[in-house]
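Chain X:
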Amino acid sequence: MKNSEMKSVILENQKLKRENEDLRRQLAETKTNLQTALSSVSHEMKNTLTLVIGNSRLLEQEQPSIASGSRWKSIQSDLLHMRSFLLDVSSFKSMDQIRLDRRLCDLSAFLRDVCRSCGGWFDGSHRRLVLSCPDTAEVLYADTNKLYQALVNLIKNGLEALGTEGTVSILLRTGTEEEQKRIGAETAVIEVKDTGCGLSREDMENALRPFCTTKQDGTGLGLPIAKSITEAHGGILSLSSEPGKGTTAALLLPRLPSLYK
């Protein structure tokens, strides 16, 4: 290659490098601006919503008969849904800067506590929550508050997929050889499996994308939040599903603290 051609290639590479750096900077600025806007909007909406909920409760105290109307119940349901959505938005917007308060915990005992907390959502007959884990202590180095948030989102998703009947099962097991290779260490796996409607291939592709949901009252943030929390722990969230048979979300978590960020 001639010197002139070599110089031309070098200059072109330098130009492409500068363009890539500019694009990365623009993307970072756009992301920051979006997060700032999202934070501002959700903050204002939460303040307004708090006032509306408070005034509606005062109105109900002043006029108790209003609570018997179907429209009033619908209004209250919509307000609670909006509050849930804004809480999800608040959680999601801070996921990139997630900080973990890690400590050693007994994963079996922790999962029993999670199931006790969520047990009230299930009637125990038509819709059941079932836990399967070892009786012995299963040690994990984790932020149990964040992990609780991830699991509650997954259990809630499973419950909503059941319809009028079915089961959400929580299984704690040791990772397979292949799963441990993916994580690069000894791995604990928490599976949240439902016997609900399942997901189509297209829905599976979009399931972990923020704000993508097929549910009428869904926020589309439950799975992305669970994914972010799992990844912050150095783990992987994997999904498998079959239409008409249900969905399984598996949290693959390294047990050793040295692998955490």
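Chain Y:
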Amino acid sequence: MPPVPPVMKENTSWSMLHSLFDSGGMPQSCAVVAELGMHESIAHALAKRVLCFHGAGDDACAGCASWTETGEHPDLILSGAPGESPRIDRCREMIEELSLRPVASPRRFAVFFGSEGMSPGAANCLLKTLEEPPSYAHILLLLETNTLLPTLKSRCWFRVIPESDVSKPRRLPGSDPEWIEWIGTASKGSPESVCADLRDWCSWACETGNMPLAEKLDRLRMVFREKRLSLAMSIDAVILVVREEVPFEQIFGALR
């Protein structure tokens, strides 16, 4: 899992969340709203501290020593991938796993990605565990939008990390060398990071008063979310729609 970017560490909400560890008062049930591209980093950073015997996340304790090179841990339970809401059967499996005693750490940590999209049935099966988790269990619900079901929200320590605090508006590339540089950087990232670039460019376009461009960028970001394109397809689409100004319908018509 990727580390938390430096700009994220300067965020007030993120600092408050981390300060709970330092005070020994980390809530057992938490819900955090943040931009989708940050979810994996947030889950990893909090898991490091929750599963550490001393709450530091980077010492030589048995909990820290149990992390694998691929970012797995015997006491870390994940619902799937960022942006994917867990189905009711997976929620039930995670609750059962969470009830087991820790293997290598003092606690077990369950992360539910895409919590805003949980079905009522999936949410209902979580209610009791969120309200009264096992003494050694911690639960994290990650959301992209502030739309968590009230029944879940009332049982969690709730925090919103505004997008405006996570990233600053950046203008889109304006020359061939800048586009070449962006392609090189984007090709090392993920579809989510390309969406994050579109979001930043959209904010910049709004600030400069270029609303047609902002609308195009936001529309493209929404298409990416719906179609779930690969990284290569996402980069190609950005070049065609934004730089070459090819109509949306000409590119995405075949994907419907």
